[in-house]
C-alpha cells in the first residue's frame, strides 16, 4: 500500500536543489565541478549581524517566541517598509516565518480552496506552482518570454484572470531571470488588478536590494495604494544580507490574512529560530553600508557572464536589472549533438550533458516553466565564473 497522498504525487521535488545535490555528489567523488545552480550569495553574513546572533545566545534568548515573531523584529519590519517602500504597517499586520518560502506557503494554505486559481508568470521560481498545488489551488501559468525581456504584459495578465482567480504572484527582480519591473511596467499591471477586485496580490520582493544601474525597485502596493488592502508584501533577509541559512522571511498585509497565516504556523513549525530573529533585527535596523559594495561586485560578475555567453554562437543572454541570475536562450543549439553523444533536444538535455561532460552545474529552463533556456547563478567568484564560461564555450563549440 502506498502511504503517500494523491496531492503529493502532483508535486515535484525542487529541480534546483536536485541539480545542486548532484553537483555535490560529483564533487565528493573528486570530480572538478563548478556549481552555478544555487541561489545563494558567496558573501559571509556581515559581522554586525553575526555579532547580534552571538549576543542573543549569550543573553539566553534561546526560548520559544510568539509563533509569528518577536515584537522587536516586527517593529524592524514595519520601519523597513516605511523607510524603503513608503508603506505603513503595524505589528498586527506583520508575519515572521522560517524563510521567505514559509511565508508564501502559509499565505496560500490560509486562503486557497479547491478550484481557486493563482496566476503565475513564467519563468517563475520553481516552488510557486507546487506550493499552490499543495494548498489545493490551481496554478495558471502565463508565459513572459525573451521578447518582453521576461516581463509580464498587462494584456497577458488581463487574459489570465477569471472569476476563479484568487491570487497573482509577482516577483521582481526575478528569480530566475533577474528581470526588474520599472514603475511604469508595474503601473500597467496594477491598473489591470484594480479592475478585478477579487484578485489578491502576493509579491515576492526577496531581491529588492539587488538592483543595478538605473533600475529602481518598486512594489505593487507602493505603486498603487488602492491595492494595499489586498496585497501581501513578502520579503526576507536571505539574499541581500547573505543570511540564507538563518531562515528568516517576513510579510505584511491585512490583519485577517496575517491571523490566518499565524494559525497555520502555530500548528506547523511554531516560531522561527529565536537567535535568527535577533540577528534579523540587526540586519534591518543596522548599517546598510555593505549593500552597495556587494552590488558593485554583482554587477561586475553579471557583465562578465552576459558578455561571455553572448559571444557563444547559438546563445542569447539578456542583461538583467537585478538579482544574481541570468537566463540565456539556447534556441540556436537545439537539435545538435554533444561531443559525448547526447542529442540536445531540450534544455534539460543541454544542462545534463554540460554537467556530465564539463562539470558545470546550471539549471534547465523547463524547471522554471519556460524553455529552451538555462539559469546561471553568478553569486560566486570571478575566477569560477570565467572558468565556467570557458567550459560552456568549449562545450558549445564541439556541438555538431
TrEMBL record:
Cofactor: pyridoxal 5'-phosphate
Coiled coil: none
Keyword flag Transferase: yes
Domain Aminotransferase class I/classII large intervals: 32-392
Alphabetical keyword list: Aminotransferase, Pyridoxal phosphate, Transferase
Enzyme Commission number(s) of this protein: 2.6.1.-
UniProt GO BP: amino acid metabolic process
Pfam family for this entry, one: Aminotran_1_2
A molecular function GO annotation: pyridoxal phosphate binding
Family matches, as SUPFAM superfamilies: PLP-dependent transferases
InterPro entries referenced in this protein's UniProt entry, alphabetically: Aminotransferase_I/II_large, AspAT/PAT-like, NHTrfase_class1_PyrdxlP-BS, PyrdxlP-dep_Trfase, PyrdxlP-dep_Trfase_major, PyrdxlP-dep_Trfase_small
Catalytic reaction annotation: L-aspartate + 2-oxoglutarate = oxaloacetate + L-glutamate
Recorded superkingdom: Bacteria
Subunit structure: Homodimer.
Family: Belongs to the class-I pyridoxal-phosphate-dependent aminotransferase family.
Name recorded for this polypeptide: Aminotransferase
